[in-house]
Amino acid sequence: MNIFAHIKPIARYSKVSYYSLVLNDNSLSLFEEFVAVQTESNKSKLNHILSWIKIIGIKYGAQIHHFRSEAKIADTSALPPKGVKREPAYIEKGKKSSNMLRLYTFRLNENVVFLFNGDLKTSRYAQDCPNVSPHFHLANKLTAAIQDALEEKEIRWIDDFTQIEFEQDFKLEL
């Protein structure tokens, strides 16, 4: 079965425009599904990631070091960034701890990021984790499809490379 996806704008901050993808006939984007599920099961970890999305969007821009590389061959990355000493501090029950919740992303440049889906990572490598592996593999496929669409000019840069544009009925096919 072929998977079709259309692009949905999520948020636009002063330094970053965020987008996600809606698969087939779903009503929610991958990112919105992530937020809905994690609000129920991992609210504080989700809030940490949402804080990073906002801080990156307003203060830093999508600099590569703010994204966690979890793929050796694709440009798929994840949030939150590595390290617990960076803002915002992630504190649960009074202790600093790493956030093992992963949101898979595709950083096109310092101004445009696609937000996919994710889950709680329980293994060292994403591809070995039963929770995140499906999200990780789908994110890699979506990243490749977005790159192809950019090369084919189906997704186009707006002049200053801070946003993308596409036909209203444009769909990626996987």
Major sheet summary line: 7 strands, mixed
**What proportion strand?**
25-35%
Low-confidence residue ranges: 89-96
**What order do the helices and strands follow?**
EEHHEEEEEEHEEE
Indicate the radius of gyration in whole angstroms.
16 Å
Total number of β-strand segments?
A: 11
Shape: globular
- Biggest sheet: strand arrangement: 3-4-7-8-2-1-11
Helix content: 25-40%
**Average pLDDT taken over every residue:** 89
Total helices: the number is 3
Class by helix and strand content? alpha+beta
Q: Termini distance?
A: 9 Å
**Count of domain modules:** 1
Write the topology of this structure:
Layout: E1 4-12, E2 17-23, H1 30-41, H2 43-60, E3 68-69, E4 76-79, E5 91-92, E6 95-96, E7 101-107, E8 112-120, H3 133-151, E9 155-157, E10 164-166, E11 172-173
Parallel strand pairs: 2-8
Antiparallel strand pairs: 1-2, 1-11, 3-4, 4-7, 5-6, 7-8, 9-10
Helix pairs in contact: 1-2
